[in-house]
Amino acid sequence: xxxxxxxxxxxxxxxxxxxxxxxxxxxxxxxxxxxxxxxxxxxxxxxxxxxxxxxxxxxxxxxxxxxxxxxxxxxxxxx
Amino acid sequence: xxxxxxxxxxxxxxxxxxxxxxxxxxxxxxxxxxxxxxxxxxxxxxxxxxxxxxxxxxxxxxxxxxxxxxxxxxxxxxxxxxxxxxxxxxxxxxxxxxxxxxxxxxxxxxxxxxxxxxxxxxxxxxxxxxxxxxxxxxxxxxxxxxxxxxxxxxxxxxxxxxxxxxxxxxxxxxxxxxxxxxxxxxxxxxxxxxxxxxxxxxxxxxxxxxxxxxxxxxxxxxxxxxxxxxxxxxxxxxxxxxxxxxxxxxxxxxxxxxxxxxxxxxxxxxxxxxxxxxxxxxxxxxxxxxxxxxxxxxxxxxxxxxxxxxxxxxxxxxxxxxxxxxxxxxxxxxxxxxxxxxxxxxxxxxxxxxxxxxxxxxxxx
Lengths: 79, 365
Hints:
By secondary structure, chain A is mainly alpha-helical. In chain A, 91% of the residues lie in helices and 0% in strands.
């Protein structure tokens, strides 16, 4: 009865996307903070290779987070 | 002439609802940012107001048919819309008075359902629509947001566990500015359009616009302005509840709650399963608290919020039905709407005056 009233497909997709996007974006942004923070620490400790590696992680994560925000705005404009 | 007077009152009431919507729901967007000091209070509400205004112009697919899935189109008259709006405004102000976040959309739906029921009886209510479009999402939204918020904060702590608090705090505060901005845009897009739709519906019912017409520019601009002004006015009581009374937030929790909230709202928009912004953010805040430590959540405050959610639709419906009944006592002309709107204005002024005398919370300078 309820299944005929509720669009269960849309509901399940919404729940799955909410988990992937919510947890995914939080993790990506946390990685960006981790990368930036470790980059500063490693550079100060005179470990350039590690600093570059963490810097790259930070930049990649920041770009991914920026992409997620852009996708969010596109979703809003297209609904 | 009588119809035009009713139309003007309906338009003014719809804009008043839009103002209370912005005023009431500001907390959803800014509470976490203010609480973690990501932004100064006044700057945060100004930022949210600007993005709410912009959001109203982003997409003009009229979400206005807020009541179309739950009430039979034949039952919709300007007086029904007016009474429904009064029900929604009243409930928004009652929950603001007590500092409780509740869904403005549910209040509007409840108000219109109640007034349509009073006008045309139970046949006017589309039961499937009420269950499928309102009740099920109302149960799903807070549970999903709670789970996502809880999982998100666990991931945050796992990733940044041993980092220096200074770097971490600055990073998450910056993230909150962006995720709060997304929330404000989404809120403007969703909620300002509901008001645009209500006004457009009234204009069509009055014969001012043709059937199926899009909202005129003055409707779009006035709805966007009303929600932005309401947002800028800031519902500080609800901001305090959301920002500090449910949990004491650190920047990571603030980001998890607002980031997870924005993701849940946008995911639901994408799949056409719209969820209440208020319920999503409240659930996200509770989840971000419980993910850190179950006892970090003040469950008494959370219980009051859930009680307000449960009461929103029936309470707004009861007020909407009563308003319709009182309006019709004065006949089918404009007299009823004029008298009821004057009485509503007086009640609102009294409520504000009482609250100001009692000392409404104000933002830090």
